[in-house]
Each structure stands twice: as structure tokens, then as C-alpha cells.
Task: structure prediction
Amino acid sequence: AQSVTQLDSQVPVFEEAPVELRCNYSSSVSVYLFWYVQYPNQGLQLLLKYLSGSTLVKGINGFEAEFNKSQTSFHLRKPSVHISDTAEYFCAVSVYGGATNKLIFGTGTLLAVQP
Amino acid sequence: NAGVTQTPKFQVLKTGQSMTLQCAQDMNHEYMSWYRQDPGMGLRLIHYSVGAGITDQGEVPNGYNVSRSTTEDFPLRLLSAAPSQTSVYFCASSSGGARTGELFFGEGSRLTVL
Result:
């Protein structure tokens, strides 16, 4: 079965600094990968996704992620964060080509942007 | 644009009581799902449905029932609430399924079981 690991539960960073949120996955078959963002007291919304093609994926709000098959990683990056980026970020994985139709989430990383 | 609507937003139950969390979407999505969110555990899939009349279990289905009689609605039933079911519940829908599609989430229902 596939799984997702987000090692950092919280990442504090100063405004305008770069940030990387780490995500590693485990699966014996090919996967699709996603990053979702959750602002306080709201539901989740899709930030970006990797299905195929270029391993560098660009999303909304200036975020991007790179799929690295050899390291089974899908880290999220932003070159310069804003206060408004403070939110919880979830990495998620689904299985390619299988009968299953499930999206499995990691435990989340709280990005805390300080002035 | 309504999107995915969940009711109620807040609910307090006593142990052993039953209740239904409602979820409705107006996007004609075939795929709908229920997650629970607990601190430090992320979101865990409870049940999902790929269309009217079809449901399947997720990672943590015990203590929950679902049915899908229409495309629009996907209620989640707690038959006998337990304190371990205290959580925030999210309903999500997608036109392309969970595999490749974007999930649209409701705003959540916060349930407390005393």
C-alpha cells in the first residue's frame, strides 16, 4: 500500500525567506502526487499536482514542487514567502493504473511565516 | 457558487447517540468522499463513492456508515457515537475521481462526543 511521510510537523520561517516543505512517499507502483493547502478554519484546496511529464510542477501562489523518482520525494518550494502563506500544507498520493480510487494524505506541515 | 456544502458545522453528542453529517455538491461530480482530520494525524479516508449506488471503505471505516442514493448527496452516519470519533470531518468531491482529479472540499463539520 502507498503512504506519505511529512517529516516536519512545523516549519517557522521569516517573511521573504525561501522555504522547502519535505514529502516522501512509499509505493511499489507508479503514483500521482499532490500538494494541498489548508488555511485556518477552512477546507483544503489543491496547490499543485504531478501526473506525468516534466518533474518540475508549478502551482498557485508561486509554489512549485519537484518529483524525484529515485529519492521517492515530492518537496514543495517557494523562493520568497509572505505572511499570507501561513497555513497547513498536506502532501498526498494516489495510485496510477490500479483499481483503487483513494487519495492518501500525509500528516501535514504547518508553515508559520513570521514578520 | 455553492460547491460542497456540509451541515452541521458544529455538533456535540453524548456517547451512544446517533447522528448524520450531511454533504451535498452541486457540481455533478461522480466521486465523493469523507475524511476525518485529527491533530498530528492528517486526513484519513473514511468512506468514498464513485457514483450513485456505489460505496467503498477507506482507511478508517469502523463506526461509520454511508450510502449514495443520488449523485448530489453523500451522508455520513454515526450509529453509536464514541469519544474517539471526536474530530473534524471533511467531505470532498471530484469529477475525475481521487486518482487524478482535483478534490473539492467542504468547510468541515466539527464533532465533539462527550
